[in-house]
Fold:
Amino acid sequence: MDDLLDQTRLGLKRRNTKQSKLRLFVQAFVTFQSSDPKKLTLIDREINNLSCIQRERITILHQEYAQCLMSVINTEAAGANLSTSRMVILVHAIIGMLQSVVLYCQDDFNVSPQKVVDELTNIIIGAVAAAKR
Structure:
């Protein structure tokens, strides 16, 4: 989680005018997960076997990652005025989608990582627009 959060923040800082922060967020996730697809799955599956201190650290990192995505959504969808509960649900749904698509679909179809980033970014934009209604 430390590595994913660091790579995401670094990617967002390198933002150029042709790529939105949302796309860069998705790209950082796809790149990270593609390099070692079992890292995040292992954390999620084995969290109960960690010490209290380790679990607390992972929980804090999950919250920081979710906060990073909330910030991106607020930047990209200025004026969305989503309630806190709606934003939290949206963010966790997006993170869950990212994890499942990259983990479960990588062998199901032969699509370039850039195409995956493009498709996921468009789906998330649609989800954010739906959440605004």
About this structure: The radius of gyration is 15 Å. The mean pLDDT is 85. The chain has six helices and no strands. Residues 43 and 58 are 8 Å apart (CA to CA).
